[in-house]
Design brief:
It contains 10 helices and 11 strands. With 363 residues, it is of the alpha+beta class. The chain has 3 domains: 2-84; 158-327, no CATH class; 331-363. The protein has a 7-stranded mixed sheet with strand order 3-4-2-1-7-10-9, covered by helices on one side. A 4-stranded antiparallel sheet has the order 5-6-11-8. The longest helix has 25 residues, at 329-353. The radius of gyration is 51 Å and the shape is elongated. It starts with a helix and ends in a 10-residue tail after the last helix.
Length: 363
C-alpha cells in the first residue's frame, strides 16, 4: 500500500491527476476512511480532485475527513473545506486585458499597403565615425575656464570681515572672519585654509561645517603684520584663481615723550575683482577713542559704537588713512617728576631769599 501511495504522490507532484486517482481508487476500496491509512489516501484524492476541478467530490470527502481520528488530517481537512466552500468572487474587468479580434481573411481585389507604396532608393549609409580620439587642447581649456568661473562665482558668496586692533605703539593684532552665505563650506574656503596651514603663516585657523573660517593672529609689530597681510592676500587670490595686487599696510609713529602720534595707511587694490562677485568685504578697526582724523575712499568709514567700519569696494582701489594720538604713561610720569623737581627747586630758592638758609640736619 505504501508503494502505491508513494507512486500516487509522485504523479500528483507532476500534475498527472488522472493517474494519481487511478492509483488511489483500489487503495481506497481496500482501506476504509475510518482507518488512518484510508484517511491519508482520501486526503491525497481530495487534492487530485481539486486539481481536476471536481469540487463536489472534494467537498464531500473533506466533510468525512473532518471526523477522522487523526488530528492532523482533521485540521487539514477543515482548512481545505473552508477554501472549497468559500464563495467565488467575480473578477473585475479592469484586471484583464481583452485583445481585439483580428480579421485574418484575405481581401480580394485589394492590394496590401506595402504593395501600394512606391519603393525608393535605399537610404545612404551613415558616415563613418572613425576611431575614438582624445579631446583636443581647446576642449580642455574650455572646461578649465568653466571650472575656474564656477569657483570664482562660488567664492563670491562670502562675507569677509577683517579686524585691526591697534594694541599700542607699533603693536597690531589682526583677525579675519570669512563666512559663507550659503551656510556650507565653499571649495575656496577649504583651499584657502589648506594653503594657510601648508605655508605655516602666523594664523590660528579655525573652520567649522557651517561655512565659517576664522583666522586670528597674535599681537605683532607693524612690519610683521604687514608681511602677514601681504602673504595672506596672495594666498587668498591664488586659492580663488585670480592674482591680487600686494596690499600696502604702513604705520608711521612719532614719539612726543608724553604721547605718540600714529598714522595708519592701508591700500587695497581690488580692481581684479571687478568682473567677479566678491561678496561683502569689510574692515573694522578698534579702538577709536583717540582717533583724530579718518579719511577713506571710495567708501566712507562709519562709526558704530566703539568700532570703525569700512566697507570695501570690489573693482576699485581702496585707501584708508587714520591718525591717532595715544598718551604715554611713562612720558607723563617723567614730565610730572620734572615738574615736581622744578617746584622743589623754586621753593628752596624762595627760602634762601627770605633768609632762612638751606635746611640743615639737627646737631
Amino acid at each position: 500500500m505504501s508503494t502505491g501511495l508513494a507512486a500516487a504522490e509522485r504523479a500528483l507532484e507532476r500534475g498527472d491527476y488522472g493517474l494519481c486517482l487511478r492509483l488511489l481508487e483500489p487503495l481506497a476500496d481496500a482501506n476504509p476512511i475510518t482507518e488512518p491509512e484510508g484517511a491519508a489516501i482520501r486526503m491525497v484524492m481530495v487534492t487530485a480532485w481539486m486539481g481536476q476541478g471536481e469540487e463536489r467530490k472534494a467537498i464531500s470527502t473533506c466533510r468525512l475527513l473532518t471526523r477522522c481520528k487523526d488530528p492532523d488530517l482533521r485540521n487539514r481537512a477543515r482548512q481545505l473545506l473552508s477554501v472549497l466552500e468559500a464563495p467565488s468572487l467575480e473578477r473585475p474587468a479592469r484586471w484583464s486585458m481583452q485583445l481585439p479580434t483580428l480579421d485574418m481573411a484575405p481581401r480580394v481585389g485589394k492590394g496590401t499597403l506595402t504593395s501600394r507604396r512606391r519603393r525608393g532608393p535605399p537610404p545612404p549609409p551613415p558616415p563613418p565615425t572613425g576611431p575614438t580620439q582624445a579631446p583636443s587642447a581647446g576642449f580642455a581649456v574650455l572646461v578649465l575656464a568653466v571650472l575656474i568661473g564656477l569657483t570664482l562665482l562660488l567664492s563670491g558668496c562670502v562675507r569677509v570681515t577683517a579686524e585691526l586692533d591697534l594694541a599700542g605703539p607699533d603693536r597690531l593684532a589682526m583677525s579675519w572672519r570669512i563666512n559663507s552665505l550659503s551656510g556650507h563650506s565653499l571649495p575656496w574656503q577649504q583651499n584657502f585654509a589648506k594653503a594657510l596651514r601648508s605655508e605655516g603663516l602666523n594664523w590660528r585657523v579655525h573652520q567649522d561645517r557651517t561655512g565659517s573660517l576664522n583666522l586670528i593672529s597674535p599681537t605683532l609689530g607693524a612690519g610683521q603684520a604687514a608681511t602677514l597681510m601681504r602673504s595672506s592676500v596672495e594666498l587668498a587670490g591664488r586659492s580663488a584663481g585670480v592674482t591680487l595686487p600686494t596690499p600696502d599696510l604702513a604705520i608711521v609713529e612719532r614719539n612726543w615723550l608724553v604721547g605718540m602720534q600714529q598714522q595708519l595707511n592701508l591700500r587695497l587694490d581690488l580692481s581684479p575683482l571687478a568682473e567677479f562677485p566678491a561678496g561683502d568685504l569689510q574692515i573694522s578697526i578698534t579702538p577709536i577713542q583717540d582717533l583724530q582724523q579718518v579719511s577713506s575712499s571710495p567708501m566712507k568709514g562709519r562709526l558704530e559704537g566703539d568700532v570703525l567700519l569700512w566697507t570695501l569696494d570690489s573693482g576699485s582701489v581702496n585707501q584708508l588713512q587714520i591718525q591717532r594720538w595715544q598718551w604715554s604713561p611713562l612720558g607723563l610720569g617723567s614730565v610730572l617728576i620734572v615738574l615736581l623737581l622744578l617746584l622743589s627747586f623754586l621753593l628752596q630758592s624762595m627760602r634762601v631769599r627770605l633768609g632762612f638758609g638751606y635746611p640743615q640736619l639737627p646737631s
